[in-house]
């Protein structure tokens, strides 16, 4: 039995020291972080475009008929959602940064040294009669299991999160990002139309202004039609923003919280178990560990 326990402890130590999964986990994590930053940049870009054109008011008075409309009335509710989306993406990016820190810590030398010390302590109590003590041996084994969880827990989480993303979320992420980018492009077109109209007003003199009045009215009507068509894009983009919020909240907030709960639960369970079962005690006695 002592030989079996020794081989098991040495196998755990070899796995902890020789198996290198950090590089692949960091690569997958960087891909997830890049997706979050792309979405965050998309949100900030939308917010910037909306800020430029929001509140812009177009007006014309052809032969006593007044025409006035405001872009802000169309974009204000959408801008509120975009701002909330940017905050979610910022929180997701911070969460991914913390996960990367845990990945880096799992590969540090001090954790590997702690694994070695824990295994050496367990083997010493297993084979040296003067050091044989059931309580201390059990405690050292628990510490070894805890160190093993810390060594590979974050790595396992990154791999499982990547599998979850590619199997369930990737298609929705791509379609949502494309729809939001398309809406951003449409808003930029509206802003360009607005910019051209403002520049034509600045360049026109008194007589030129009279001749350009008709063209100005046509431009106003053209932008108005663009905004009417844009409402459909905004509604679609709003739904896609909700989809992206759901994706990143699940992948970067809820799943890490679930992982943290699992880690804390494992530690609590590990150190609360007393192993008072008679069979286990008898087995340890047979391995000549003092009880």
Q: How does the SSE layout of this entry go?
A:
Blueprint: H1 2-18, H2 22-53, E1 57-60, E2 67-70, H3 71-106, H4 109-127, H5 134-203, H6 206-272, H7 278-286
Helix pairs in contact: 1-4, 2-3, 2-5, 3-5, 3-6, 4-5, 5-6
Lateral strand order in the biggest sheet: 1-2
Return the string of H and E elements.
HHEEHHHHH
Number of β-strand runs: 2
Task: Report the radius of gyration as a whole number of Å.
Answer: 32 Å
Quickly count the helices. 7
Outline type: rod-shaped
- Structural class label: mainly alpha
What would you say this structure looks like, in words?
With 291 residues, the protein is mainly α. The chain has one domain. Helices cover 86% and strands 3% of the residues. It contains seven helices and two strands; from the N terminus they run ααββααααα. It is rod-shaped and about 90 Å long. The two termini are 16 Å apart. Mean pLDDT is 75; it is low at 59-68 and 277-281.
Defining key terms:
two-stranded antiparallel ribbon; mainly alpha; 291 residues; 86% helix; 7 helices; rod-shaped
